[in-house]
User: Fold this.
Amino acid sequence: MNTQAYKGVMVIAELVDNQIHQTTYELLNWGRGLADKLGCDLSCAVLGSDVRGLNEIIYRGADKVYNVNSPSLEKFLAKPFTSALTRLIAEEKPEIIVAAATTTGRTIMPMAAAELGTGLTADCTVLDIDPEEKILLQTRPAIGGNIMATIKTPRHRPQMATVRPRSTRQAGRDSSRRGEIIEKKYEPVLFSTSEKFIEFIIDTTQNVNIQDADIVVAGGKGLKNRDGFKLVEELAGVLGAGVGASREAVDLGWVSYPHQIGLSGKTVAPKLYVAVGISGKIQHLAGMQTAEFVVAINNDPDAQIFKVADVGIVGDAWEVVPEFVDAIKKIKACA
Assistant:
């Protein structure tokens, strides 16, 4: 393969109801950093129907926006989206393609990689450029999150990766930036598929989605049992927060997997993260390290979580958390 024929970094915009989702701006942050290290352009592929606000993608760091616009892309279906993506890649030949590790990214990126005959590293937590080889370094958890593996794609192009949402901050906004928006119109036959969109069903198992929450209260093994974990749920309830958990708490059956935070769970970046009874193993820290402010409650003064906490409280959760809950209720009552 002539790897020299491929140039530039491309990210795949994340859309919700054909609106640009904030995850797109996180991808642009990753992409801008990679493109700057390579000294190349950053482009963004928008696959949808009459998507608005494309200039915002330029303001957030893209040099080019490829707008693949078709009524067939109004609802997400795997084959039409993959066909559009592979056609765009064949035309533009980016050397690196990055998408979010979401339902969309986890579906179309493997299909596209298979069609293109290249590799894909899924669910990355870190992306970087090898300073000598100038190729993509794709780091992701392996062996149940116990080690971090760094993967390269030296002989095939494009180099493809999906990256966890909330693994970096959103790209900054500069309304003075200028770029190019390129409309892509493809023949209808490209989008033909035997698939049919029937219904979108919302997951109601979580009152607040932890990846979208401004506040997350998470509990760990230090809470001793399921009754102890109810302290986390009560504190989250009065704060209007999402409920998170360490892997140990999930493995013990105190809460379901969608609440798990860490290398083998979700990555969150709330404004406030409250860790209750969590020791702070590296596997968990990797899932919440981009939180803006961290409060840790643990009865072990040597717990690792205190090293990343902005405020640390050494004490028994059974005593500390109820006091927090009472204080918050009183404040709300006076408001």
